[in-house]
Amino acid sequence: MPKKIAIYPGSFDPITYGHIDIIKRASMLFDEVVVAVARNLGKTPLFSEAERVAMIREAIRELPTVSVDSFQGLLVDYARSMGAQAVIRGLRAVSDFEYELQMALVNRKLDEHMITVFLMPHEKYSYLNSSIVKELVRFNGDVSSFVPPHVEENLLQKMRKP
Ligand code: ADP
Asked: Which CATH superfamily is domain 5-159 in?
């Protein structure tokens, strides 16, 4: 049996406990999970690709079947090149659904064998995203229950000297 590999793509700007929740759930289903930082999104990220990868690496240190990588170009091409059978996405609320459905169907059109798996985080993370965390830090809000300590430290440093 070939290894079951899943790609978890996203901006991760920065990684939050919501992302980590999804990574842990995915790692219970797949032999290997690759967290993949997308390089070519229309958004201008706060953190460089290397910074985002480093923060993810630290966050997954204790998860032996999870690794981190980055990619550009089409997700299905990247996933295929990694020998992956599935793409993981998190679904927080109905508001995520329309966009995620569109992406999943486009990816299926591009590669009918690529399966998108949606996972729901613990409800305590269902309102959380990276933008809210950045906004909170900007106004001195406490983000310790949303991101790991090393990510909070990186956020504080970035705000001090952008
Ligand atoms: P993207 O720009 O691709 O949406 P994100 O880093 O914002 O990148 O999100 C990557 C994936 O993680 C998406 O599937 C998103 O729905 C999911 N996600 C983000 N935050 C959470 C959270 N708090 N709980 C569960 N899933 C999340």
From this structure: HUPs (3.40.50.620)
